[in-house]
């Protein structure tokens, strides 16, 4: 009985360690998901802004202005 109890305790300890590692992994993945979601939203905004500028015939603020356009300004 004593040996079985010790084995059960060791097994329980290993399971607890595995649960802790899995919880940490979930937290890490949740943080990564949140960060990537923010990047997606920012990029969606940039795409929307770029499309609006294109429809208006404006240059997007992120574009590099060529030498010919600099001389006209």
Please describe what this structure looks like.
The chain is an all-alpha fold. The chain has one domain (2-58). The chain is 84% helix and 0% strand. It has two helices and no strands. The N and C termini lie far apart (90 Å). Residues 43-73 are annotated as: Disordered. Residues 5-32 form a coiled coil.
Sum up the structure in keywords:
73 residues, mainly alpha, 84% helix, rod-shaped, CCD-Prefoldin_beta-like, coiled coil
What is this structure's SSE topology?
Elements: H1 2-56, H2 67-72
Q: Summarize the helix and strand pattern as letters.
A: HH
Total domains = 1
Number of strands: 0
Low-confidence runs: none
Report the radius of gyration as a whole number of Å.
28 Å
Give a short account of the largest sheet.
Answer: none
Shape, principal axes of CA atoms: rod-shaped
Task: Name the beta content range.
Answer: under 5%
Report, as a whole number of angstroms, the end-to-end distance: 90 Å
State the helical fraction.
Answer: over 70%
Structural class: mainly alpha
Number of helices: 2
Mean of residue pLDDT values: 88
How would you summarize what this structure contains?
Residues 43-73 are annotated as: Disordered. By secondary structure, this protein is mainly α.
